[in-house]
Hints:
By secondary structure, this protein is an alpha/beta fold. It has 7 helices and 6 strands.
Amino acid sequence: MTKIERGLLGDLLADIGGRLSAPTTICVVGSTASILLGQPERQTPDIDIWGPESDFDTIALKRACEQAGLLFDPRGELDPDAIYLQILRPGITMFPERFAVEKLGRFGNLTLVMPPPGLIVATKLARGWESDLEDAAWWIRERRLSDADIESGIAAIPQPENQDAARENLFLVQLIAGKRKP
């Protein structure tokens, strides 16, 4: 299974940005932001972007992705070695439709932004997979997130049941991150 790590991610983004003829902004969610910011040993098979906080020409971005060797917003079953850019939209995801963004960097005509770190942590806490809890602990340590930062992110999640799940996992992650004593 092909995985995107920091070096490959930077190369792919530079390739895509070099192929775009107009300024394009994508809001990366999931693991892409933490990989770019140096989370050790983190890999992913995809680049998830949040559609409402992104600004792109669909045809131009699709063409640039395909020329760089990525699938663009695939649907259905995928080859295990496929790497792809996935566009997330409001609905089943835990992100609010709109939120403030933080600039991550620019790669040619491609600018990357991300959600506030507290919101990233909140969505990872809500899903609660082992890798999500490790990611959340990394974000808390890396950005020195306060309880208020994380609570603000949790409160922004649209579904009450996902807010509850995030709050349930918060104490455990604070233990992992070293912010709480057992």
